[in-house]
């Protein structure tokens, strides 16, 4: 690795170009984002500045404290966080606007958010045109009776800045009510990573730290685009490039932001930009297993497997070797869309690298076979021994600050605190700890809740944040499901479109809106867990407070206390410090969280590396290879595989209609130039995408992009109308956010 002085010198070899600040290049204007953020918080700029400098970021899961972090001593500030400032500082909405929601129903989600913060509990009964203000006692007493039958309600928490304390208190409250039907956004994002990693290496988290990027020989991004989703990470890549690290990308789309990026807070990169990706390997949507299996097949045939490490620290390798011998190169090429030579090139890079970090995201997980996708990545890392040492690791990079902690706090239908499976023994353990009986059967996942509501098998849904109409496949199906419930309780800081769906279930249906506090408003402070397993304290930030908004941990525990008054003394907390102490008792590897109390306090569970020295937290202490079969993907002549992508947005919150990286508007249908020429479709041509059975359609306009032929991309959540709600992975139960479609030209 180069010396620190060498890394600080200017290095034109990594520059994106010689034009100052990339003038004339298509790219986001990071400095304009600062101006927009400054304008958006007019009247609350001092409060906004305190949030930026004294709070732990509630955006992507890198966990910056203020505007700094633990990877390097430099300023860190990204566009995502700037865009969230408005939500965190805006005044209350005028509740009279909710008296009749007919006008609100015509608004976009962005327009609804811009109305302001929810200040008071609001109630809308069946047949009423809108909401009326009620008191907290009336709201809680109305909801509590609907939560007494554990088989008839579900609870969902999104990842939007939700701290560990809220997750933990919510799941404990649901279990006190006799149910495991509590789920969170980790299900929709990285549940296949959780399942596959737990099975393969015994730990459901990234095995390394961000510091391991800098100085690694190789970083491979697979189905991941941090330039859009974790922009602070681009500074780490800048420093990694300066240290000599090579970057490879495996993806269906050659993401412009991963080709070259201008890091705004670093003078050299801000002026000249930085070339990020050194090697690009194009694969079909859904073709990752074919490509990754081919790479491993090459490693084996070329004698590039670290045999000593594999023999000493893993099991199952021979079974994988035999399985790969039975997969022909023709099959692997047909599925992946890549050539045998391209697979050999990545095998060479991995084989020659002394260290490597493998990074993946939702391009890998959001498939009906997402668990197998992750296992294929794990097989590669195990074959080269890239686990448990410096500059090596497996990294399922998280997109939101609340995702990693959500599952680890037990806000999961299939997992208890600490990620323990729902079994009789584990339920008994937590029952003894908490003083009430914990149910022993897994609960309903997020998608199961919608299915149950649609079928009349669910009476009540409590949703903390989120918007099923924008997050899950087939919004029409979700809308019908939501309308059939007797009661919906929406806990949030702003309005969303799902709140406006009336409850038309049997009897007197009702919709309750309960105003929540942001993490910066919570007395006693809160914590989040970053992608690198760092538990970070975020203090309360002095500033204006909104109406009667309450912390979500208090709302959930009070709902349960009123539904089960005999358990009230075991559910209520005096404050967040008491919750952290409860977390430390329940989750041993979160040791130290109870002592976090000041800005900057943090503890990284497991240390810099999990599985140190190749010692895995599995029953036999070994990592587990597993054969990965090729998925049966058939693409009829003339059909395309379409994937849903993110643009200028945070989760489903769209910030701009046009993506600064590629110029795509929200209705864009990204298509390869080869396919566009073959079909005679110029940029801007209106087209209709129709699902294989013909029952789902999406209308948009063609935009040529560096995409693999035979594949398309459209924006999420707009493209969710094409997705089949039945297609889910077998174990993680994650929806498949891809579809087989045909393309038809429309008349202008």
TrEMBL record:
Name the keywords, alphabetized: Iron, Iron-sulfur, Metal-binding
Mark the transmembrane ranges.
none
UniProt key word Protein transport: no
Q: Which top-rank group of organisms is this from?
A: Bacteria
The Molybdopterin dinucleotide-binding domain sits at: 642-739
Q: Which residues form the Molybdopterin oxidoreductase domain?
A: 117-561
Q: Does the keyword Metal-binding belong to this entry?
A: yes
Q: Please name one Pfam family that this protein belongs to.
A: Molybdopterin
| InterPro entries for the chain | Asp_de-COase-like_dom_sf, MoPterin_dinucl-bd_dom, Mopterin_OxRdtase, Mopterin_OxRdtse_a_bac, Prok_molybdopt-oxidoreductase
Which PANTHER family did the record assign?
PROTEIN YDEP, RESPIRATORY NITRATE REDUCTASE
Name under which the protein is recorded: FdhF/YdeP family oxidoreductase
């Amino acid at each position: 690795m180069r010396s620190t002085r060498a890394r600080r010198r200017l290095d034109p070899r990594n520059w994106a170009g010689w034009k100052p600040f990339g003038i004339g290049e298509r790219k986001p204007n990071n400095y304009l984002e600062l101006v927009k953020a400054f304008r958006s918080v007019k009247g609350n700029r001092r409060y906004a500045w305190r949030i930026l400098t004294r709070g732990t970021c509630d955006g992507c899961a890198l966990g910056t404290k203020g505007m700094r972090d633990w990877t390097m001593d430099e300023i860190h500030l990204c566009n995502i966080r700037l865009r969230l400032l408005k939500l965190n500082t805006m005044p209350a909405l005028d509740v009279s606007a909710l008296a009749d929601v007919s006008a609100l129903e015509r608004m976009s989600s962005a327009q609804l958010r811009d109305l302001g913060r929810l200040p008071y509990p609001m109630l809308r009964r069946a047949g009423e045109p809108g909401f009326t203000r009620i008191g907290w006692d009336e709201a809680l007493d109305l909801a509590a009776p609907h939560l007494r039958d554990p088989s008839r309600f579900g609870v969902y928490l999104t990842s939007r800045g939700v701290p560990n304390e809220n997750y933990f208190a919510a799941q404990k409250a649901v279990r006190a009510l006799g149910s495991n039907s509590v789920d969170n956004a980790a299900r929709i994002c990285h549940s296949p990573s959780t399942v596959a990693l737990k099975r393969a290496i015994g730990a459901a988290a990234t095995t390394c730290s961000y510091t391991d990027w800098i100085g690694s020989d190789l970083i491979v991004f697979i189905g991941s685009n941090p330039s859009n989703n974790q922009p602070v990470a681009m500074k780490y890549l800048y420093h990694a490039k300066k240290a000599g690290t090579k970057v490879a990308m495996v993806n269906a789309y050659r993401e412009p932001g991963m080709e070259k990026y201008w890091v705004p807070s670093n003078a050299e990169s801000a002026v000249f930009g930085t070339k990020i990706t050194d090697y690009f390997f194009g694969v079909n949507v859904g073709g990752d297993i074919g490509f990754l299996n081919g790479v491993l097949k090459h490693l084996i045939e070329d004698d590039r497997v670290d045999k000593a490490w594999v023999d000493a620290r893993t099991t199952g390798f021979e079974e994988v070797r035999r399985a790969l011998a039975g997969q022909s190169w023709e099959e692997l090429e047909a599925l992946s869309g890549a050539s045998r030579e391209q697979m050999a090139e990545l095998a060479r890079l991995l084989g020659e690298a002394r260290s490597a970090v493998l990074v993946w995201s939702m391009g890998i997980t959001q498939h009906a076979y997402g668990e197998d996708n992750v296992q294929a990545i794990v097989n590669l890392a195990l074959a080269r021994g890239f686990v448990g040492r410096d500059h090596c690791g497996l990294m399922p990079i998280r997109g939101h600050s609340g995702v990693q902690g959500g599952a680890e706090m037990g806000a999961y239908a299939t997992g208890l605190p600490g990620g323990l499976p729902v079994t009789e023994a584990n339920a008994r353990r937590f029952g003894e700890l908490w003083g009430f009986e914990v149910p022993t059967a897994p609960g309903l996942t997020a998608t199961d809740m919608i299915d149950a509501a649609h079928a009349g098998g669910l009476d009540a849904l409590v949703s903390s944040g989120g918007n099923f109409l924008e997050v899950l496949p087939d919004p029409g199906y979700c809308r019908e499901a939501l309308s059939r419930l007797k009661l919906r309780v929406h806990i949030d800081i702003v309005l969303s479109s799902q709140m406006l769906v009336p409850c038309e279930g049997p009897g007197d249906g009702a919709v309750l809106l309960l105003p929540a506090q942001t993490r910066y408003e919570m007395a006693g402070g809160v914590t989040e867990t970053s992608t690198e397993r760092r538990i970070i304290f975020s203090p309360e930030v002095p500033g204006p407070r909104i109406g009667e908004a309450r912390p979500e941990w208090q709302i959930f525990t009070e709902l349960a206390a009123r539904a089960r008054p005999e358990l009230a003394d075991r559910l209520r907390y005096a404050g967040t410090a008491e919750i952290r102490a409860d977390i430390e008792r329940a989750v041993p590897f979160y040791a130290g969280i109870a002592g976090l109390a000041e800005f900057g306090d943090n503890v990284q569970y497991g240390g810099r590396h999990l599985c140190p020295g190749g010692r895995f937290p599995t029953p036999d202490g070994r990592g587990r290879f597993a054969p990965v079969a090729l998925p049966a993907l058939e693409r009829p002549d003339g059909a395309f595989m379409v994937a849903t992508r993110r643009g200028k947005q945070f989760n489903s919150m769209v910030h701009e209609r046009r993506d600064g990286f590629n110029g795509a508007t929200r209705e864009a249908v990204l298509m390869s130039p080869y396919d566009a020429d073959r079909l005679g479709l110029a940029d801007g041509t209106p087209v209709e995408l129709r699902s294989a059975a013909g029952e789902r359609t999406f209308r948009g306009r063609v935009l040529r992009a560096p995409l693999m032929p035979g594949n398309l991309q459209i924006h999420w959540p707009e493209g969710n109308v094409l997705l089949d709600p039945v297609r889910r992975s077998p174990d993680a139960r994650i929806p498949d956010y891809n579809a087989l479609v045909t393309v038809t030209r429309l008349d202008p």
